[in-house]
C-alpha cells in the first residue's frame, strides 16, 4: 500500500525524530537522497550545469545541501536566492565551500536557460497558496528551459494536503519527497505537476492510519474474490443490474459487461434492455419484473442509463443488500433513503454528477477532489467513489482514510466507461467486498484494463470491459 500523510502529521513525526538526532541530521538525510536522485536522473554529474531555486525556508536548505553535494562531484552549481537575507545559512555556506555561486533573481534567466538541471527549493510543506510573483517568474523560466526540473519535497505552489493548485506552480519532471508521500502528490491537479515521484526514507515514524492510501498490485491480489472448491454460482454471489432504458440500452449492456468480469457467480439483469443484453451476453439472467420480484441477489447496481425511472431506484434502495448507485440513479436517489439504509451503499459520480449533488460547480469539484468526496460521503452516509483524473474513494461518512486509484488513464474518459466500472464494482460487492474495497479494486482493475486496451490509442468502453480479465491476471501474477 502506498500511503500519504498530511503536513501536521509529518511535522509532528519530524519533531519527534529531530529530538533524538543531532541537529541538521534530518536535512542531511533529505539532501543526500535528493542529490542521489538528481545524479540518477542526469546520469553523469561531472560538468553538468545545475541551478537551485532557493526560497527562505528549509526547502531551500535541502536544495542548497544537495547542490553542494553535486558541486563536490564536479557539477557547476548556481543558487538563485529569492530572499537573500533569509536563505538557509548552513546550506548556503556548504554550497559556497563546495564551489557553488549565487545570483539574484533578476540575473537568473541566463543560468536557467543554460542549465541541465533545475532544483525547485522555493517552498515545500511550508508553502501556502500559489507562488508569489518573483517565484512564479522563476518557475516559468524553468518551465521554458530545456533543463530537467526536480521538485524538492513538493512542486512549489501546490497544496500539500489537498492536491489543489491555486495559482502559479512549478511543473516538475521528478519530485523527490521526504519521509512520506503528501496527499497532493497522489491527487490531481497537483499530481500532474509532480512528474514521477521518488520517496526518500528519512526515518520518520508515522501513525498507523494515513490520510490517503493507494492500492498496489499486492493489495488488490489480497482483496480479489477467489472461488473455493465448493463454490457454485450462488455462493460466489449474484449481482443485479437495474440499468438501461429504451433510450439507453447500451448502458445496460456495458454495465453487464463489467459485472461479468467482477467475480460474481452470475449476473441478473432487470430492465427494458433485456434483448440487447441477451444478444451480447447470453449467460445473463434476465427479468422484466422489477428489482423486488427479480429473485435474490447479493448486491445491486442501479442507475446507468436509467433515464427518469425513479421507481426502480427506490425499490433497489429499499433492499437489504449492498447497492451501487451510478449515473441517473444518483440524481434520482433520495438522500433520506440512502442515509436510512442498513446495508452498504456505494455512490460512483463523476465530477459533474458530484457537483450537481453538492450544488457547486464542476470546476470546484475537480479542483478539490478530496474535500468533495468527503463532503458527499458525509451528506449521504454512504461510501463515495468520485471518478476522474484521479479517482478517489471515501468510506461512509467521509472521515478516515481516502483511497486514491493509481492506475487511471486519460483514455478512460470515454462514453460508457463508467457503466463498465459500475458493473465491475457491483460484481465485487456481490462477491463480498466492502463498499470501499469494491470501489477501489474495481477502479484499479478498470484503470489497468483501460491502459491495456488503449496502449496509447483511443479505446471504446466495451474494449475496456474485455481487457478486465487481462488486468485481473496481471494483478494476480504480481
Ligand atoms: N518535515 C520533515 O520531516 C523534513 C523537512 N525538510 C524540508 O523542510 C521543508 C519545510 O520547511 P519549512 O517549514 O521551513 O517551510 P518551506 O516549505 O521551506 O517554506 C516556508 C517558506 O516559504 C515561504 N512561502 C510560503 N508560501 C509561499 C508562496 N506561495 N510563494 C513563495 N514563498 C512562499 C515562506 O515565506 P514567508 O511567508 O515567511 O515570507 C516561508 O519562509 C520541507 O518541505 C522539506 O523540504 C527536510 O529538510 C528534512 C525533513
Ligand atoms: K519545492
TrEMBL record:
<feature type="binding site">
    <location>
        <begin position="124"/>
        <end position="130"/>
    </location>
    <ligand>
        <name>(6S)-NADPHX</name>
    </ligand>
</feature>
<dbReference type="InterPro" id="IPR004443">
    <property type="entry name" value="YjeF_N_dom"/>
</dbReference>
<keyword id="KW-0630">Potassium</keyword>
<dbReference type="InterPro" id="IPR029056">
    <property type="entry name" value="Ribokinase-like"/>
</dbReference>
<keyword id="KW-0547">Nucleotide-binding</keyword>
<dbReference type="InterPro" id="IPR030677">
    <property type="entry name" value="Nnr"/>
</dbReference>
<dbReference type="Pfam" id="PF01256">
    <property type="entry name" value="Carb_kinase"/>
</dbReference>
<protein>
    <recommendedName>
        <fullName>Bifunctional NAD(P)H-hydrate repair enzyme</fullName>
        <ecNumber>4.2.1.136</ecNumber>
        <ecNumber>5.1.99.6</ecNumber>
    </recommendedName>
</protein>
<feature type="binding site">
    <location>
        <position position="120"/>
    </location>
    <ligand>
        <name>K(+)</name>
    </ligand>
</feature>
<dbReference type="Pfam" id="PF03853">
    <property type="entry name" value="YjeF_N"/>
</dbReference>
<dbReference type="InterPro" id="IPR036652">
    <property type="entry name" value="YjeF_N_dom_sf"/>
</dbReference>
<feature type="binding site">
    <location>
        <position position="350"/>
    </location>
    <ligand>
        <name>(6S)-NADPHX</name>
    </ligand>
</feature>
<feature type="binding site">
    <location>
        <position position="153"/>
    </location>
    <ligand>
        <name>(6S)-NADPHX</name>
    </ligand>
</feature>
<feature type="binding site">
    <location>
        <begin position="387"/>
        <end position="391"/>
    </location>
    <ligand>
        <name>AMP</name>
    </ligand>
</feature>
<keyword id="KW-0413">Isomerase</keyword>
<keyword id="KW-0479">Metal-binding</keyword>
<keyword id="KW-0520">NAD</keyword>
<keyword id="KW-0521">NADP</keyword>
<comment type="subunit">
    <text>Homotetramer.</text>
</comment>
<comment type="similarity">
    <text>Belongs to the NnrE/AIBP family.</text>
</comment>
<comment type="function">
    <text>Bifunctional enzyme that catalyzes the epimerization of the S- and R-forms of NAD(P)HX and the dehydration of the S-form of NAD(P)HX at the expense of ADP, which is converted to AMP. This allows the repair of both epimers of NAD(P)HX, a damaged form of NAD(P)H that is a result of enzymatic or heat-dependent hydration.</text>
</comment>
<feature type="binding site">
    <location>
        <position position="156"/>
    </location>
    <ligand>
        <name>K(+)</name>
    </ligand>
</feature>
<feature type="binding site">
    <location>
        <position position="418"/>
    </location>
    <ligand>
        <name>AMP</name>
    </ligand>
</feature>
<feature type="domain" description="YjeF N-terminal">
    <location>
        <begin position="10"/>
        <end position="210"/>
    </location>
</feature>
<feature type="binding site">
    <location>
        <position position="419"/>
    </location>
    <ligand>
        <name>(6S)-NADPHX</name>
    </ligand>
</feature>
<feature type="binding site">
    <location>
        <position position="305"/>
    </location>
    <ligand>
        <name>(6S)-NADPHX</name>
    </ligand>
</feature>
<feature type="domain" description="YjeF C-terminal">
    <location>
        <begin position="216"/>
        <end position="475"/>
    </location>
</feature>
<keyword id="KW-0456">Lyase</keyword>
<keyword id="KW-0067">ATP-binding</keyword>
<comment type="function">
    <text>Catalyzes the epimerization of the S- and R-forms of NAD(P)HX, a damaged form of NAD(P)H that is a result of enzymatic or heat-dependent hydration. This is a prerequisite for the S-specific NAD(P)H-hydrate dehydratase to allow the repair of both epimers of NAD(P)HX.</text>
</comment>
<feature type="binding site">
    <location>
        <begin position="58"/>
        <end position="62"/>
    </location>
    <ligand>
        <name>(6S)-NADPHX</name>
    </ligand>
</feature>
<comment type="similarity">
    <text>In the N-terminal section; belongs to the NnrE/AIBP family.</text>
</comment>
<feature type="binding site">
    <location>
        <position position="251"/>
    </location>
    <ligand>
        <name>(6S)-NADPHX</name>
    </ligand>
</feature>
<keyword id="KW-0511">Multifunctional enzyme</keyword>
<dbReference type="InterPro" id="IPR000631">
    <property type="entry name" value="CARKD"/>
</dbReference>
<feature type="binding site">
    <location>
        <position position="59"/>
    </location>
    <ligand>
        <name>K(+)</name>
    </ligand>
</feature>
